[in-house]
Amino acid sequence: METKTTVKSASVVKPLERAESHEDNAWHQAMLQLDRAALKMKLEPFVLERLRHCKRILTVSVPVKMDDGQVKVFEGYRIQHNMDRGPAKGGIRYHPLVCLDEVKALSFWMTMKCAVVNLPYGGAKGGIICDPKKMSKGEIERMTRRYTAEISLIIGPEKDIPAPDVNTNEQIMAWMMDTYSMTVGYSCPGVVTGKPIEVGGSLGRREATGRGVFYVTRELAAREGFDLRKAPVVIQGFGNVGSNAAKIFSDHGCKVIGISDVGGGLYDPKGLDISDIFHYREKNETIAGYAKAEHVDVDAFLELPCDILIPAAMENQLTKANAPKIKAKYVIEGANGPTSGEADRIFNERGIIVVPDILANAGGVTVSYFEWVQDMQSYFWSEKEINARLQEIIIGAFTEVFDLAKKEKVDMRLAAFMVGIRRLGKAASIRGMYP
Ligand code: GLU
Predict the structure, then answer these.
(1) pLDDT, tens only, 21-53
(2) Measured from the CB, is residue 132 less than 6 Å from ligand 1?
(3) Do residues 121 and 80 touch, judged by C-beta distance below 8 A?
(4) What's the pLDDT score for residue 20?
C-alpha cells in the first residue's frame, strides 16, 4: 500500500524564481534541473523535498605526511544523496576545485543516473581538495588510505560503494579496497568498483563510460536518421571518458576531428589519427605539442564546426556565454553537469539536441554495477557478455527517455529526470517514512 505523506513546509520553487546567474554553482544548477522536472510532473512535495536534501554528508580532515617530512591536512568529503533504491554509489574526485556544493550536486546526479538506467542503487559522491598533479605517488597513496579509513564509517559493499572519477584510477581503487579490507579484517573487493582485474575488477569497466557514450550516440543517429560515420565529432577532455570515447568512435569508422585536454585542443577537419595520439600521449603525458594537427585554444575549441560535441571534462563548460556560438547539432554529455541551465535553454531555442549526462555517461556506473555483482558472487563474466548487457541497458534507457521526450514534447534532460524521478518517487512512497 502506498503511503501518502504531506510535507507542510515544502514549496515548489518555480525555476524562474531562482536567480539564473549562478552558472558556476553545480548544486544550484542541479536544483534548477530538479525544480523544472518537479513542475512539469506536478511532483508530490514529499518526494521533491526529499530529493532536495542529501541524506548524509561527511566532511573529513585527511592528514598526510608529505615527502619533505611535513604534515599537510587535506579536506575530503563523502556524501550520500539518496538510498531509497539501494546502496549509495558514485565516484571519488581529486581536484583543487572540489567543494561541498560540487560534491552534493555530483551525488544528486548519481541518484538520478542510477534511477534512469534502473540500477538498484542510490547516489553518492566523494572528493578531496588537492592537486594530485603536484603530488608524488607515495603522497597520493597515503592520502587515499587515510581518506578511506576516515570514510570507512559510512562506506561498505552493502552501504556505499565508491569508484573512480576525475583524477582517480584503478590503482587508487585498489588502495581503497586494501585499506577498507584491513579495517574489517578480510578481503572485501565489493567495497569499491573500477579496480584492477587482478583484485576483483571487471573486464570492460575502463572503457565502459566511453562505450556508453557511443551507444547512445549511435542510437540517436538511428532515431534521428543521420549517418554517424559522416557526422564529425569533437570531444572535450582526454581522461578516462574522452580518450575511450575517441577510440571507440574512431574504431567504428567515425570521424573524430577535435580532441582536447587541459593543455589545449587538436583539430583536423579530415579526422584525427586517434591511436597515433594515444602513442604520443603515452610518451608526453599530454596531447599538447602533437605535431600532426592544428592547435586550438581551450575556449575556441568548443565552438569548432562539427555535428556532434561531446563535453567529457568538467561541469559548466557550456554556458550562456558560448551556447549561442556552438556549431554542433547534438551535444552528448560525457561529463557530469557540463551544460548550465541557461545554455540548456539556448540549445532548446536553437534546436540543438542534448543527450543528458545522467543517461549519456551512465555506462560507467552500469559496468560498476556488473563489477559489484561479480565481486559479491565471486564469479566473473566475459567481456563479450559485459558489453552485450551494457548495450542492452543503455539502449533500453535511451529508448525510454527518447520516446518520453517525443510524447511529452520536452527535451531529453527533462524526460530523463521524469523517468528517474518516477522511479525514485515510487520507491520513496512505498517505503514510507521512518519513524
Ligand atoms: N564517476 C563515474 C560517474 O560519474 C562512475 C561512478 C561509479 O561507477 O560508481 O558516473
Answers:
(1) 699 999 999 999 999 999 999 999 999 999 999
(2) no
(3) no
(4) 53
Specify the pTM: 0.95
CA of 82 to the centre of ligand 1 (A): 15
Is residue 365 in contact with ligand 1, taking CB distance under 6 Å?
A: yes
Q: What residues have CB less than 8 Å from 58, skipping those under 6 apart?
A: 77, 78, 79, 151, 153, 154
Catalytic residue among 113, 125, 195, 255: 125
Q: Which fold has domain 208-360?
A: Rossmann fold (3.40.50)
Active site residue 406: no
What CATH code would you report for 54-186? 3.40.50.10860
Q: In the structure, what pLDDT confidence band is assigned to residue 14 with cuts at 50, 70 and 90?
A: very low
Q: Which residue has the cell 573524430?
A: 256
From the number of C-beta atoms within 10 Å of its C-beta (0-12, 13-18, 19+), residue 58 rates as middle
Domain boundaries, the chain: 54-186, 208-360
Fold agreement between 54-186 and 208-360: yes
Distance of CA 163 from the midpoint of ligand 1 (Å)? 6
What are the distances in angstroms from CA 141 to CA 65, 70, 150, 172, 398?
11, 16, 14, 7, 38
Mean pLDDT of the chain: 95
Residue 3, pLDDT > 90, answer no
Interval between CA 415 and ligand 1 midpoint (Å): 21
Substitution candidate for ligand 1 out of 109, 110, 167 with most atoms within 8 A of CB: 110
**Over the stretch 321-349, which tens digit does the pLDDT of each residue have?**
999 999 999 999 999 999 999 999 999 99
pLDDT digits (tens, 9 = 90+) for 386-397: 999 999 999 999
Quote the cell numbers at residue 339.
551544460
